[in-house]
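Internal ticket - ligand job 382, flavin-adenine dinucleotide:
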Amino acid sequence: MTRDGADVVIIGGGVIGCSIAYHLSARGVRVTLCERETLGSQSTGRCAGGVRRQFSYRRNVEIQQLAVRLLERFPDEIGVDPSFRRTGYLFVLTDDADVERFEGLLGMWRDCGVDDARWVSTSEIRELTPLLETDGVLGGTFCPSDGIASPHEVTIGYAAAARRMGARILEGVEVRGIDTRMGRVTGVRTSAGDLSTAAVFTCAGAWSGGIGELVGVSIPVLPYPRHVFVTEPLTRIPHDHPMVIDFSTSLYFHPEGGGLLFGMGAREEVPSFATEVRWGFLEEIGQVASRRAPALLDAGVRTGWVGLYESTPDHQPVLGPVSALEGFWCACGFSGHGFQQAPAVGLLLAEQFIGEEPRLDLAPFAPERFARGLLIPEHNVV
Ligand SMILES: Cc1cc2nc3c(=O)[nH]c(=O)nc-3n(C[C@H](O)[C@H](O)[C@H](O)COP(=O)(O)OP(=O)(O)OC[C@H]3O[C@@H](n4cnc5c(N)ncnc54)[C@H](O)[C@@H]3O)c2cc1C
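stdout (structure tokens):
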């Protein structure tokens, strides 16, 4: 603790950094958050807003259960409506092995309290989403209480609540160096001057690997550009149409502003920080959509953008303190599901930081797991 500094400096003001800033401030920790652009302007501001409990790794389901409870009480606790619309989340399956795996997961989801997740037949899928072409569809899983929330409201809500509790939230301030002495963090160097601190949280999303390099810590997070498009308004889409994911192709869509928001992973993905829209990618999506959701082809595309997934080798986040450098904490590498995990992860890391017994153990996500070869794959990523 220092007079001119902070107990904790958070590097990055996306949804993760802002959630941690709030949960630490609520526990009396003096926080300074440095965001080099504007709050929520990077991956967070470009994400699809999906919130679902249908993960393959049990701890992710538990984290997501907690996150959903926190989103439910967000208006009372944070004073902002996170626009959490529980329109449901449908995984559409076309592969026998996936059918077997998802059927097996239903029991675990219910065990974790996700009581309304259920198996749906092809004809039920047709009722849930009239836009889907069901040739070759074997069935799917549906959870009506999953849904979509607003990344903007959640991020800005946490930042404002953290400020009210005394956090300093700085925009346009880049962290350029981290000072250490005798194996401990002692300060950060920023574009706006130096700050003394005994702890930093790396919440720099796709850029987190570069923050690790400042202190010789390997954080295996790579950037993968992902396209999102939004169509012109369509008449056939009910407002409560669920989020639909065609699991084997990763094509997904949900209602947005009277039209549809849709996206898909590219066939061949290479790490890159490029975020210009490749309009030609619409052709690759079109090939899949012509088989699975032809309505997308009829709709004019109103806008598109690219955001970065921040992926790790096992598609799981990197969470907690780095044992080789005291005071250096990670909260990054969410591999495309960080928005929905942010409320819970912020709370759990804040509890761990102040020495409370966290209600869910984050040890499986420890930064050292890569060096130890203890990867914990999450299969339900798109
Ligand atoms: C197309 C797309 C769709 C997605 N859909 C979903 C979804 O449906 N559901 C879901 O849960 N997740 C989704 N995600 C993933 C989700 O957006 C991310 O996991 C989440 O936003 C990560 O938040 P973050 O705060 O870690 O990263 P970011 O929002 O990227 O924030 C990191 C911040 O760090 C700042 N920064 C970097 N370096 C420095 C530095 N040196 N100094 C100061 N600041 C720095 C950056 O400017 C940035 O603002 C999607 C992502 C994409 C791209």
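Auto-summary: The radius of gyration is 21 Å. The first helix runs from residue 15 to 25.
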